[in-house]
Amino acid sequence: MRVLYFAWLRQKVGLGEEEVAPPPEVRDVAGLIAWLSGRSPGHAAAFAQPRQVRCAVNQEFATPDAPVARGDEVAFFPPVTGG
Amino acid sequence: MSGAQPPRGVTVRVQEAAFDLAAEGALLTRGREDVGGLASFVGLCRADDGLSALVLEHYPGMTERAIRRIAEEAYARWPLTGCTVVHRVGRLEPGAPIVLVLTASAHRAAALEACAFLIDWLKTRAPFWKREEFAGGGERWVEAKAADDAAAARWDRQDAGGGR
After folding, report:
1. How many domains is chain A built from?
2. Is the pLDDT of residue B2 over 70?
3. Which residues of A touch B123 (CB under 8 A)?
4. DSSP output for B116-157
5. Would you call A59 and B61 a contact, using CB atoms and an 8 Å cutoff?
6. Which residue of A has its CA nearest to B130?
């Protein structure tokens, strides 16, 4: 699974992207966030305020209950501020 | 990276370089006699609170896809003959143009409304992020604004697709 981070999430995690292999019990976005948060203090800081975090699965906006699986591209970022 | 086939006449670009409003407009009208109105919106970098630059980043691939999706929604709502969205990324100083939205239609109402719709939805549904840099050396990420959500929500309707 490829995980991408943008904006301040990237700064807090210290990585723009990483390949991860979460255990089978990680089935959705919320589960992935919980699992990723245990990877490093930076990850924990990035996900400390879940309400400030948005997600996309395979480049489509996704909610915390959206399923994730091996091979997916999952991105985490703050609410968008373009335009 | 390619999703569904976009409607004819849709141009979406994400780039560091500046854009040329007149040239982009000419591309939507050249050689046609069915365009009665061309509407444009240009967003620029403001020097709020001693800001020295905005640094814009995006999610390559998803960004273009999200903007094309918004353009498809505009085509479903208004009879457009063409539309162009160009969004810049990278470091932009006060006064610099950031985003261009152009819409063309047989009649002005469709062009004007679709142009407002496109920029309102783009601000809340396309994956861009702005970081502010200040003359004193400080920096901060721009936070999403409730006013932008409200502006986008005025276009909501029951058959519209969800965003963030």
Report:
1. 1
2. no
3. 80-83
4. HHHHHHHHHHS-EEEEEEETTS-EEEPPP-HHHHHHHHTT--
5. yes
6. A81
C-alpha to C-alpha distance for A33 and A48, rounded to whole angstroms:
10
Q: Model confidence over A22-32: pLDDT tens digits?
A: 999 999 999 99
Using alpha carbons, select from B147, B139, B11 the residue that is nearest to residue B74.
B11
Q: Do A6 and B127 touch (CB under 8 A)?
A: yes
Q: Is residue A10 part of a domain?
A: yes
Q: Provide the chain B residues 12-31 that lie in CB contact (below 8 A) with chain A.
A: none
- CATH code for the domain in which residue A36 is found: 3.10.20.30
Domains of chain B, earliest start first: 10-153 (3.90.1170.40)
ipTM of the complex: 0.95
Residue A29 inside a domain? The answer is: yes
**For residue B92, what pLDDT is reported?**
98
Please report, to the nearest 10 degrees, the dihedral formed by the alpha carbons of residues B71, B72, B74, B80 taken in order: 90
Chain A with chain B: Cβ pairs closer than 8 A? 74
A39 in any annotated domain: yes
Answer whether residue B11 shows pLDDT above 90.
yes
Which range of residues forms the domain containing residue A8?
A: 2-77
pLDDT over 80 at B1, yes or no: no
pLDDT in tens, B139-160: 999 999 999 999 999 998 755 4
Question: Which chain A residues have a beta carbon less than 8 Å from that of B88?
Answer: none
